[in-house]
Amino acid sequence: MSEFEIGHLAYLSLLLIMVLMWYISSGRIALGQTLRNAAIWVLIFLGAIAVAGMWDDIRTSVRPMQTVLEDGNRIEIPRSSDGHYHATLSLNGADVAFIVDTGASEIVLSKEDARRAGLDPDNLAYWGRAMTANGEVRIAPVWIEEISLGGFTDRDVRATVNEGEMPQSLLGMSYLQRFEQITIAGNRLILIR
């Protein structure tokens, strides 16, 4: 916490104590009832802090995930609350979360996801360049031995590793074009092979 935040916290605490003291001294209600009401408000306040602190975890756990339909040639991915389509693929046996990005030419892995897939991002040759919304970044070409989405498995798939920071890997057109049909209908991304 910064000194500014500590000052605000001290001010709010002092203000709360003064309001409580006034409320108790005014004699409007009994001390037991006042303490019970104060305890209820403290619990409500602590609950709100807990929800705010864990919001990212809660949002991640309730986000709709991909559904593989039984007919074997169709995958439906519901649109997430953030407006994106998220898919979890298996790369060399490791689960990696992706954002489906039709504006990305290739599969673009973050360094962390590359490591998870058994690649060593610290020893790659970042000689390629790519233009992103944040400007130019250096990339390293890699080959993924096995990549699976639902019941579909592909081998020796080309991808790149982004040298910069990325919050999540991107599932680009070099993979999506392996499907016969890509459709967005009713808040669902439908992939058909």
Q: Would you write up a description of this structure?
A:
It is a single chain. The protein has 193 residues and is α+β, with helices and mostly antiparallel strands. The chain folds into 2 domains: 3-60, no CATH class; 65-192, Cathepsin D, subunit A, domain 1. Helix content is 33%, strand content 34%. It contains 5 helices and 11 strands, in the order αααβββββαββββαββ. The strands form 2 sheets. Strands 3, 4, 5, 6, 7, 8 and 9 form a 7-stranded mixed beta sheet that branches. It has a 4-stranded antiparallel beta sheet with strand order 1-2-11-10, with no helix packed on it. The longest helix has 23 residues, at 3-25. The protein is elongated, with a radius of gyration of 25 Å. The protein starts with a helix and ends with a strand.
